[in-house]
Known about the structure:
Four Helix Bundle (Hemerythrin (Met), subunit A), mainly alpha, 4 helices, globular
Amino acid sequence: xxxxxxxxxxxxxxxxxxxxxxxxxxxxxxxxxxxxxxxxxxxxxxxxxxxxxxxxxxxxxxxxxxxxxxxxxxxxxxxxxxxxxxxxxxxxxxxxxxxxxxxxxxxxxxxxxxxxxxxxxxxxxxxxxxxxxxxxxxxxxxxxxxxxxxxxxxxxx
Length: 157
């Protein structure tokens, strides 16, 4: 595996770790919480994140496919997001050639997903269900662990 593919896989594991924290136990009304009418709800943001991972997989395989999915119920959308992360990670772990550069995959869909995780964390605070801060430098982020089941935080504050 090339260094760039290994880095992308580590980045996906980071998205899974931070994303799992952002979507875990948000309360019954969080999915539809909204700021101004022009902003996305948390459910729409999560659906978009799943679409980003689907898009990254398609580009990796040489296809230009974009879907703008309507959000599912929160738990189903969480499942869809982590399933899309896994499919993309599985592709990166394979010997199949990348049809898009690692740099473009990072600067496009992967960096966008990281931005949206930050939005979910901010919206949780605004909705009254904040996340605890954490020293992510010491977090147990493991390549290939891209599901909702993540290691417990090492140092929250």
